[in-house]
Amino acid sequence: MTTFNISVRQFGVHAILIEWPNRVEESILDEILQFIQFLKKNHLDDKEWEFVPAYNSLTLICKDTVLDFDYLKPKIKDWYAKKGKIDPATRYLWRLPVCYDLKFGLDLEEISEKLSMSVEKITELHSLNIYTVYGIGFLPGFMYLGGVPEALEVPRKATPRPRVLMGSVGLAGKQTGIYPQDSPGGWNIIGKCPVPMFDVKKENPCFVKVGDKIQFYPISMAEYQLHKIESEVGIYNIEKIVLDA
Amino acid sequence: MLNIIKSGFFTTVQDYGRFGYRDKGVPVAGAMDSFTVSKLNTLLENDENSAVLEITMTGPTLEFEQDTYIVLGGAEMSVTLNEKPINNYKVYKVKSGDVLTYGKLLKGFRGYLGIKDGFNTAVVLGSRSFFRPITEQDSIKKLSSLPYTKCKLFNPKISELKVASVLDKSQLEVYKGPEYELLTDKQLSQIFYKEFSVANENNRMAYQLKEAIEGNAISMLTSATLPGTIQLTPAGKLIILMKDGQTTGGYPRILQLSDMAMSILAQKRSGDLVSFKLK
């Protein structure tokens, strides 16, 4: 079962960093998500603790308490050894619409030249793939997605844009993702998604969680406008499929 | 209501911070100098999470609509209540129509205005702390107003406090960060036997230090960062994440500031000197 060695390290006085082998791997992410469920269920109250997973690490943060690391380190190792197989929280595949129109895909023509690949082929490859959410950070609701096909790997822009618009879909190196708000950014912009990735008015402000999967599907400009309005008035239903069912 | 006649350079509402949303990428926010804010809320016998005004560099001019009690603290600024000078860490009664005017910044960088029972601005995701786009505003605006609850009578147990100021300190206590072990002897000696000056790039998100140490080409997978995390960039610059800092990062986290060091640093501005001491 458990085949990974974990390291447990102190991270200031309020946090503990747990690390798995330094690889981007689904099986590692699964272990982290299972461990979070196990800890929440059996040992660490999620009203007091925050659990921040990303790629091969899990950071446990306790806001008020100064942690007794010498006590907790062996405990955590012991809990992990005893965890066994546990179901992670229900995971979803979210299907998100993207308009790859050149009006939104500001860098499509440039990367088409760089990759010697037609714009159509780029958008087809980008939307065929299924991506895994390995982390959320940088901005509220910003997903670190893994699984970009090698053929689409293209360096980030030499000069970042001072302002990338909210909803813009970017591509850079092994990563792709959506800018959840207007922000400076150096990724190549290939399209725009009309569904907001972060909404403070919702009890759960970000529908996606680490471990979920994302697939993009192409839509026309007219569909973009329609979904944008539907999202704004709160009647757009994001297509989701339960994984691990 | 507290009417904003002048907003000052960058004045925000802050409480203890926004907890529970870091796995969604939401920074904690909250008062930069939490040491000072806890003193103000203690004097006012407030809940420790009561919201205060954080006043950066140049202060506002404010008019009170209802009676209440206030305490100032943090940076030393020349402040008058109805044109009479008032001091830090002392409880003052204010009446409807009173005007609080901030003048010159004398020492430190961030002043705080605590009010009896705290400001009642909107709670978003569990906190009143301003942080755009979580909250609509990034700072208070001229001619707007901030809600608070009227308080006619309050007999403070302690009306004045002698506070060991964080303003005179420049040594920052640090813990080893997760990637500390990757530092070379040369880098360690550069970090601990040198003073650094605060660069112009400093705000609620991060403080960058001007002097570089030897760079580092360590590549790591993106992982969690905390307020007070010191990151080392490939060019050898030290970036200290503050309360509005991002929740994840890809640079080595070499050191972690203590809570008190966060408050000390929050009172520094461009050009001020700091040094590090391992705890």
Automatic annotation (TrEMBL), chain A:
GO MF term list: ATP binding; hydrolase activity
Keywords on record: ATP-binding, Hydrolase, Nucleotide-binding
InterPro entries: CT_C_D (IPR003833), Cyclophilin-like_dom_sf (IPR029000), PxpB (IPR010016)
Keyword Hydrolase (UniProt): yes
Chain ranges of the Carboxyltransferase domain: 6-208
Protein name per the record: Sensor histidine kinase inhibitor, KipI family
TrEMBL record, chain B:
Keyword Disulfide bond: no
Keywords recorded for this protein, A-Z: ATP-binding, Hydrolase, Nucleotide-binding
Superkingdom assignment: Bacteria
Originating species: Arenibacter troitsensis
Protein name per Swiss-Prot or TrEMBL: Biotin-dependent carboxylase uncharacterized domain-containing protein
A Gene Ontology molecular function term of the record: hydrolase activity
Gene3D superfamilies referenced in this protein's UniProt entry, alphabetically: Cyclophilin-like (2.40.100.10)
Domain called Carboxyltransferase: residue spans: 23-279
